[in-house]
Amino acid sequence: QVQSFLFQTFSFGFHIMLRLLLLALLAPLSQGFLTSSFLPAVRQAGSPKSLALLFPSLLPPSSELTRLSATCSQATRLVSSQHVRPRTRIGSIALRAQHDDSSSLLRSLADVRKLSALVFAEEGGSGVRQAQEMMASGSDDEALELLLDSVIAQKMSDEQLAEMWKALETTRQPVSVDRILSHLKTAQMSPLLRIQGGVTMARVLGIGLGRSREALEVVRLLNEELELESKERDVELLRARLGSVKTRLQMREGDVKGAWATQSEVVRAMDQLAANSSELCVEVSLLAAAARQKGDVHEAKLLALRAKDLLPADEPLLSALVRGEYGSILLAVGEWDQAVREKLDVVDIVIQETGPESRAAAQAMDELGVCLQAQGKYKEAENYLRKALEIREGTRDGDASEVAASYLNLGSCMMDMGNTSLGRQLRQTSLEICKQYLPKDHYQTALALTSVGESHLADGELDEAQEQLEEAIDMWERLLGSNNPNLAAALTSLGRVLAAKQEPQRALLLFQRGLSIKRLVYGEAHPSIATSLNHLAGLWEETWRNRDEAYRLRREALEILQLTLGSSHPKVAVHMNNLAILEAKRGNYAEASELVQHALKIDQEIFGEESVQVATDLNSLATLAFHCGERQLSRQLYERAYEIRRKCLGEEHPRTLAS
User: Fold this and answer.
1) Contact 614, 604 (CB under 8 A)
2) How far apart are CA 593 and CA 607, in angstroms?
3) 641: Cβ–Cβ under 8 A, 6 or more apart, which residues?
4) What pLDDT, on the 0 to 100 scale, is given for residue 515?
5) Which of 36, 181, 274, 481 is the most buried (most CB within 10 A)?
6) 446 and 477 in contact (C-beta within 8 Å)?
7) Is the previous residue joined to 356 through a cis bond, with omega within 30 degrees of 0?
């Protein structure tokens, strides 16, 4: 028996060596056959690099081989142990690709990330289908086991895991955290691998499914388990990655201060564990986002520049992530032209890499729309904002905070374009989504409350405006403390409400507090500071009849806007109009007329002849003509302004009635 066994073993080995020699001789004629047929066999034998040792002349260049070897190793890990019932072993990705000319396929996809994406697409889709088949046959528990095993083994993308999870929850109650943790504890693998699977599970649960609070509980328990492990590099790196997931969850929950604290620790750890890496680049950019939302815009800009310095040359989506955040920071500090340039590049990259209907494309287009709106290019902004909202609404079980943000941003654009009725409706929809689906204290909810309050103010509904703005101010103080620019904006808007309600002293205190916060955050030259100065000027002019102080404040505001936005921005036109009215009251009609005509030219070019902004300019010109004795011209201008307002705003709108 021993002799027979040895003879069979020798014969098998001889046949294998003979095949290898034949392949070597035939390789110049059939390199594609070798790549498509022999590579999977070597991969299944467990050593992709052995191919290079045996036949180096038959393989791609060394640099490509290095990537290909890494690709095969990753593909092996991803597809070698698919957990189904009955348990089967999936064939290699290279073998399944033979029907599509595997040689050219593997050469074109030698990059490990692209091949990984292909593996995810095939294996992930297969896993989702298997789960659906199990559920169709009533095997919900088996489908759940498949889902949890797939999460731990990390054999699918987050999007595919979330899709499987959602499909499972249509047939049963939401998967409980206790069930998740129980499965993690019983998984037959090392503690670190089990915790790594838990990190993926927390990410899918919180970011993919929007169950942030449950995901935070998973993160907390995983951190407790990590405390029991030794302080080795792998453990500390896993702890930092878990902290990064926690940061994202905290930001989704609106806990910006908590996210800043968590991410600061993550970046400190990554500086030691993964210096100058792509992973560090991502974490620094995330810290910049937390700083921006917290109101530390100059700190955020420094962090974003550091993230840009860390960018590798061949990571387009990572570049889009980092440059997108940098663009948002540029918008916050008032560098709007450069922000738009960054956001335009980001949209191009994201659409090319993920497609025009992806969630990432919607995010990029929404952010570009906000920047274009700030630039005063409202029609272009509207197109991008509408497309982003369309994509987000069309996504099954889309993220509530993203959908709410789209409604809010489009509503604000409509308000700036003079369509106050639609703008108010969109803002109100955003607030309703926030209150229904988001935590009580959430960043997006506070933004929506502020905007809805400003809509009530624009319509003359002062009590409703005051109620919404006071609620927003309380929420901003709970979320971000007392020195945040969003809080300053809400304080300024509430000051306008109180001024309109003839409470000038309270209004003055709110204006001054808002202005001091903005100067602390932005410095002396920022469009938001010009807005505060303009409101202060109105209070001095209307309440205390101090036109000299009002003129000084309005002139300073206009100079800031011209410095930061240029001379053809619609906000410049608004401030020119305000200054012109004051000049007329001071008897300087020639200067006032020049200012209004400049404002009218800007508004006609941007909004068109039949717009609310043009109606305001015509109304100002009519007033000037009346004071200069041009009664006939004055009447014609008033009538034209009235007709535009009636058409745009309706008969009963306060501005129409004032006309």
Assistant:
1) yes
2) 20
3) 615, 616, 618, 619, 622, 659
4) 96
5) 36
6) no
7) no
Residue length, the chain? 659
Residue range 350-389, pLDDT digits in tens: 999 999 999 899 999 999 999 999 988 899 999 999 999 9
Tell me the two tokens of residue 200: 């993926």
pLDDT digits (tens, 9 = 90+) for 155-180: 667 666 776 676 666 665 567 777 77
The amino acid present at 461, given as its one-letter code, is E
| Angstrom distance (rounded) from CA 148 to CA 347 | 35
- Residue pLDDT, tens place only, 49-103: 333 333 333 333 333 333 333 333 333 333 333 333 332 222 222 222 223 333 2
> How far is residue 585's CA from residue 467's CA, in Å, rounded to a whole number?
34
**Do residues 377 and 362 lie in contact, with contact meaning Cβ atoms separated by under 8 Å?**
no
Q: How far does CA 145 lie from the centroid of its chain?
A: 32
Asked whether 97 and 55 are in contact (CB, 8 A), the reply is no
pTM, 2 dp: 0.72
End-to-end Cα spacing for the chain: 109
Residue type for position 214: E
**CA atoms within 13 A of residue 527's CA, in its CB half-sphere:** 22
Over residues 258-269, mean pLDDT: 96
Number of helices and strands in the chain (H, E): 35, 0
What contacts 357, CB < 8 A, 6 or more positions away?
391, 394
